[in-house]
Structure formats: C-alpha cells, structure tokens
Design a protein that fits this description.
two-stranded antiparallel sheet; six-stranded antiparallel beta barrel; disordered N terminus; 8 strands; Thrombin, subunit H
Length: about 140
C-alpha cells in the first residue's frame, strides 16, 4: 500500500507504508539489481585459498555486493571473480560483513569491496555491463 509523501531536503518522496516501522535506507552508494554468476574463494590471513564457492551476485554498488552462494564463507575475506564480456577474468577482494542462511539452504553474503577506488569502480562497472548485455540476449 502506498503511504504518505515524505519531505526530505525539500523534495517529496512517496514511501511504502505497512504495519512495520518506516525504513529509509541510508547507504553511501545506491545498489543496482543484477544476476551474474561469480566465483568466490575464502582467503586466510596470508591470502592463501581456504575454500572455493560459487554463487550469483544479486546486487552491486561501489561499496559492495550481495552474493547468493551455495555455501557459507569460511573466512571474513573473499576473492571474488567472474569472466567479463571479453572473456577476461576480473577479480577483487572483499570483506564479509553479513551472512544469512535462506530457507532454500543457500547463503546471502554481504561483501564490502576492498582495494583502491578505481579498481572497485572498474570491477562493478564490468559486472553491471555484463549483466545488462547478457540480459538483452535472453
């Protein structure tokens, strides 16, 4: 059900109102919904591979990713990779900030991307471009 208009910084925004508290998201970067197959590997403190996992990146921003994975992360550090449109491997490291088991038995893992800003922007932009290009093919 659509609720009342809410004024924020002089502009009106319509918000959804239900029986729970009103929730306004306060993120640094906006998220983009995507569905891209990825590989993620848990890393130990010396950057050695501990475990391999695969999943789907379900949303992305310049700050992080939400991953739907088969298994839970074994450590708080991940190396995330996918193959871009040019068939090149694109990878970045990230810090696990949340992990939640779903009813289906998979895991939703929130990852804060790490590295310098240009590398993060390059990774996310290639991820989003891959999604939009492959979406048009289906």
């Amino acid at each position: 059900m659509i609720g009342h208009a809410l004024k924020i910084n002089g502009s009106s925004q319509t918000v959804a109102k239900d029986k729970t508290k009103l929730h306004i998201e306060k993120r640094r970067c906006s998220r983009v919904s995507i569905r891209v197959p990825i590989s993620c590997a848990s890393l130990d403190s010396t950057d050695r591979l501990m475990d391999h996992n695969k999943g789907i990146a379900s949303n992305a921003s310049q700050a992080g990713l939400k991953i739907e994975a088969e298994k839970n992360a074994c450590s708080d550090r991940l190396k995330i990779a996918f193959v871009d449109l040019n068939k090149s491997r694109v990878e970045i490291t990230g810090k696990v900030v949340s992990s939640q088991k779903t009813a289906a038995g998979t895991y939703k893992i929130g990852v804060q991307l790490q590295g310098n800003k240009p590398d993060i922007v390059r990774f996310v932009s290639k991820l989003v471009k891959f999604y939009h290009y492959t979406k048009k093919l289906n």
